[in-house]
Design goal:
11% strand, alpha/beta, 9 strands, nine-stranded mixed beta sheet, single chain, 344 residues
Length: 344
């Protein structure tokens, strides 16, 4: 059984006694900074001087400085910049203010263990390491906190953590609201490897490919693209919401008997031995570091394959049909993004 902590196990006074810096003000960054502040924590946000996020952070009433300044000021620093940007931020702007301090004087934290696990960031033993990884996008971390709830999170500390580090990291998790839902004990390795696997095999890669394949199968068989969109993408939310509330059992209870029987007789045909073999290969590449090395190399080369794939996928027929249909359903609060990832 996993070890799970709740609010009753956390001491908020520990993080309230620290000066906390947040690097980044994107999805996770804004949620952590605002939730911490509203939990009574002294917070500053570290951003590049030209960051377009600075105005939003200042408008929210947060103190914004450069990453250098925040790293020098804080006792605890949570780095929430993209994984691929973190090593340079650490090397150029954070390490000069963290390395060489008295043991335990500074705590370095992450919401994903990628760079620590794959050693692209390798702090000295004098620096305490912590991980708080909410299991939801940042907007949900913020929304649930404001509603009086929270999203579950994973928690880890460095392998040679000093006394008190675990309690401090748990205090941080409670301050962003996660201890209201449950904070699960893990390690940097387990969090990193399971997170990457989940993204690739199920949540993003697997789900996206399944949706596209279903759409293409129906359209190629002569069915209307609009009908295929509703059947293979739009209704997926209904099914996932049922799973979210009560697992596969509740989803099967809620759908028709015909749909339930189709689940039992067809699912293993779609996700069969070949899919399971591919999942095993994905996990092996993650555990060996092969995926990390390829992704790091892709970024060092300027992301040519990544950017081309992003552009091509944005032009898939299901995207074009879906964008048109969603405009007819304003109650969905539809959004659109360009191939470069920016919202218009």
């Amino acid at each position: 059984m996993a070890t799970i902590y709740y609010d009753r196990d956390a001491d908020l006074s520990l993080i309230r006694a620290k000066k906390v810096g947040i690097v980044g003000y994107g999805s996770q960054g804004h949620a952590h900074a605002l939730n911490l502040r509203e939990s009574g924590v002294d917070v500053r946000v570290g951003l590049h001087p030209t960051s377009r996020r600075a105005a939003a952070a200042k408008a929210a009433g947060l103190t914004v400085s450069t990453v250098d300044e925040v790293a020098a000021w804080c006792d605890v620093l949570m780095i929430l910049a993209p994984d691929t940007a973190q090593p340079k931020i650490w090397r150029d702007q954070v390490a000069p203010h963290f390395e060489g301090k008295a043991p335990g004087a500074k705590t370095l934290m992450f919401a994903h263990g990628f760079n620590i696990h794959y050693k692209t960031i390798a702090p000295s033993a004098s620096i305490d390491l912590g991980l708080v990884a909410p299991k939801a996008p940042g907007h949900r971390v913020r929304e649930t906190y404001q509603e009086g709830g929270g999203v579950p999170a994973l928690l880890a500390v460095g392998p040679d953590a000093r006394p008190g580090v675990h309690a401090l990291v748990l205090s941080y998790a409670a301050a962003i609201g996660s201890a209201r839902a449950g904070v699960l004990e893990t390690t940097f390795a387990e969090e990193t490897e399971t997170d990457l696997f989940g993204e690739q095999a199920v949540l993003c890669g697997g789900a996206s490919a399944l949706v596209q394949a279903g759409f293409e199968t129906l359209v190629n068989a002569g069915y209307q693209p609009e009908v295929a969109y509703f059947e293979c993408l739009h209704e997926l939310k209904l099914i996932v919401d049922l799973m979210y509330r009560g697992g596969l059992k509740y989803m099967r209870y809620s759908v028709s008997d015909t749909a339930e029987w189709g689940d039992y007789v067809a699912g293993h045909k779609v996700i069969g031995d070949a899919s399971r073999k591919a999942m095993g290969e994905l996990l092996a590449a993650i555990r060996s570091g092969e995926f990390a090395r390829e992704w790091i190399a892709e970024n060092e080369a300027g992301r040519p394959k990544f950017l081309e794939t992003r552009r091509r996928e944005a032009e898939h027929p299901i995207e074009l049909v879906g964008a048109r249909l969603r405009k007819m359903m304003p109650f969905l609060d539809p959004v659109d993004v360009d191939p470069e990832g920016g919202q218009p």
